[in-house]
Design goal:
The chain has about 220 residues and is mainly beta. It folds into two domains: about 110 residues, Immunoglobulin-like; about 100 residues, Immunoglobulin-like. The chain contains one helix and 18 strands. The strands form four sheets. Strands 2, 4, 5, 7, 8 and 9 form a six-stranded mixed beta sheet that branches. Strands 11, 13, 14, 16, 17 and 18 form a six-stranded mixed beta sheet that branches. A three-stranded antiparallel beta sheet has the order 1-3-6, with no helix packed on it.
């Protein structure tokens, strides 16, 4: 039979594969990501953690194929430990591998289960404040704090990416020391509509939510 060149090349091109073990892990624990078959590897190929089935931009944590957030050598195949953020909600998650610092997905792992571990707390006071005023955010019990843990302001119940303002646990938009517990003044943007709002605490510059505050009211 006649074999087309395109068919022959396709047969020789590896298909990227990504697996994750174990199948169940406690929040704050570690899984192993193992990949192979990347035809054109780059140093900035990266692995992201996701709730199963969510959009490519909604990662909860990430590392390069160097096994850190600093790019190293390109790797067509390899494995890395991947730490699951503490305080992550129990449920089904997956890892994905992407090409060259972009959202070109190369492979998706099977699903794995994250189980609860207790976790961080976040409170806000006072419970009523005018737009442009200041509340105090107080948090505790972050099991694995990082300097880029951050606090966001949200309309109650909105999506994790719909923040209205944010600070790191340094109390500014410049990261400093990691802080398992602390408090920060949080200035509310002027001009926000009256209504019910909340603060949320997230891990390591991503959308892995550690805690949600009590609600508070914004007054005119």
């Amino acid at each position: 039979p006649r074999i087309r060149v395109a068919d022959a090349l396709s047969a020789l091109t590896p298909t990227p594969v990504l697996t994750v073990t174990p199948a169940s892990v406690v929040a704050g624990g570690t899984v192993t990501a193992t990949w192979s078959g990347i035809a054109a590897p780059t140093p900035r190929d990266w692995i992201g953690l996701y709730v199963s089935g969510t959009s490519d931009e909604a990662y909860l944590g990430w590392i390069y194929v160097s096994c850190s957030q600093t790019a190293g050598a390109a790797k067509a195949a390899g494995s890395c430990p991947f730490t699951i953020p503490s305080g992550l909600a129990p449920g089904s998650y997956e890892l994905r591998i992407y090409a060259n610092n972009a959202y070109t997905r190369l492979a998706t792992s099977g699903t794995f289960t994250v189980t609860g571990s207790g976790g961080a707390t976040l409170g806000v006071s006072p419970t009523s404040v005018a737009a442009g005023g200041t509340v105090t955010a107080t948090w505790s019990r972050i099991p694995a704090p990082t300097s880029t843990d951050w606090i966001g302001l949200y309309v109650s119940g909105t999506g994790d990416q719909a923040y209205l303002a944010w600070i790191y646990v340094s109390c500014s938009q410049s990261p400093s020391a990691a802080s398992a517990a602390g408090s920060c003044p949080f200035t509310l943007p002027s001009g926000l509509a009256p209504g019910r709002y909340e603060l949320r605490l997230y891990a390591n510059d991503a959308y892995a939510r550690l805690a949600t505050s009590n609600p508070f009211d914004m007054t005119p």
